[in-house]
C-alpha cells in the first residue's frame, strides 16, 4: 500500500510556486472603504457654552427642542396672529450676515415610543408613595398599556375622527441654528463665535416665547439619543429595539473623554452603505431615502403641515397622513435682502419687450418688490422628507404615498426617477450639515416669502396639557395630554370643572 501511494505521488506534477506577498498587498490590508461618519459634521459638545463644534474646527451650532402652540378649535384671527409672531421670529430675531449667513433647520417627526413619558409618570409621585404596592401595580399596568398602544400599525383605525391608524406617539419638533465661518483670513476667537451664537439663540427663543412656543436648549445627550436611533433603527444587539439601545450604549457624557473623541463616530454601530442604483442609504439593512420638494405649487395655508384641518367628516393634520417614520426638514438660509433685491431687479430689467411673457414677468417682479417693502422678506428655503421602509418594495410604496399627499396640497416633489442627487441630499439635510458656500451648482433651495415659510413651519400643534401627569389622556394625534388638578400650578382656588362626554366615556370613573 505504501509503495502504491508513493508511486502515485511521484506521478503528480509539482505545484507552481505561489507569488510572493508584495508591498502593495500588505498596504491594501490597511485601507478602508469611504467612511460615512466623515460626512457628519458633529465633533463634540461643549456644556459650558451649550454649543456643538463642527468639523471645520471654528463653526458652532445650537440644538433646540420646540413645543408647538396648541391650535385646536382656534379662530382664523388667532392663527393669523400666531403666524405673524412666527414670521417676526424669523425676520427680526436672526440677523442677516453677508459672509457667513445664519442657517435655521427645523425637523418634525412622530416617535412611536412612550418610554420617556413612562419615566415621567414613574418620577411624578411623592417619594413616600413611589414604592407602595398600589404605585408599583399601577406602573406595571400602565407599562403594558403603553406597549400595546405603541405597537407597529397602531392600536386601532380611527374611522370616526382622524381617519388614520391611532398609535401612541410623541410628535417631536427640533431645530438647529448655526453658521459656517469661512476659514480664509483671520478667524475670530472661540469666545466671539460662542457669544455671537448664544446672543442670536437668546433673541430667537424670546421671540418664539412671545408667540406661545416654548424652546429648550438641547444638549449633547439630546443629539446623541436622537441620531443614535436614526442611524440604528433595528440594532441586532438590542433585538431590533432602538429604545433598548440607549440602555446598552448610553451617552458617554461630556467629561473625561478619551483622546480623539468624535461625537459623530459614536452614532453608528454598524456599517452604513449606499446603493446608487436604488438611490438609498442602508442602516441596519433597512433602506432610507429622501424626497426633496422642488417648489410650491400655491401659497400654503397657515399651519399647512401640522395644524388640524377639516376634510369631510375627518379632522386631521397633513403630517398625520404621512408614512410612518417620516421626518420633515426645512432648511432656511437668512441671506441679506440686498442680494435678493438685486436679483429681482435683474429679472425685472431682463424682461424687455412687448410680449405677454415679458409683461407678466415685470408685473411679478414689481409685486415681489412691493411685498418685500411691506416687510415680507424672501429667504432661500429647502424642504425635504426623510422616508424609510422595511425593504425596497415598502420604501417605494411609502415614497409613492408621500408624493400622492404632497402634490394635491401644493408641494411639488422631485420624483425618485428624476432626482440624481438623492444620496447627496440625504447628507446635506442632516442637522448642521448644509454648507451654503459649497452649494453653488446643485441648488435645491427656492426663494420663499417669510410669511409662507411661517405657514409651513411645524409650530402649529395640538395641546399636550401642563406637563404634570396626574391625569393622563391622549389628544387626537395619540400624544399624551396630562394635567393635575391637585398641582398648585394647574388650578386656582375657585376652580370649576365641566365634564362632557357621551354615555360610556368614563365621566363618573374620572371623578373616583
Number of domains: 2
Largest sheet: 13 strands, antiparallel
- How far apart the termini lie comes to 96 Å
Share of helix, binned: 25-40%
Mean pLDDT: 89
The radius of gyration is 28 Å
Alpha-beta classification: alpha+beta
**Overall form:** globular
Oligomer: single chain
Strand proportion: 15-25%
Question: Can you tell me the residue ranges where pLDDT is under 50 for at least 5 consecutive residues?
Answer: 1-11
Counting DSSP E segments of at least 2 residues, the number of strands comes to: 21
Your description of this structure?
It contains 14 helices and 21 strands. It has 512 residues and is α+β, with helices and mostly antiparallel strands. It folds into two domains: 37-113 and 150-462, no CATH class; 465-512, no CATH class. Helix 3 crosses helix 13, helix 4 (115-123) packs antiparallel against helix 5 and helix 9 (337-350) packs antiparallel against helix 10 (356-373). It starts with a helix and ends with a helix.
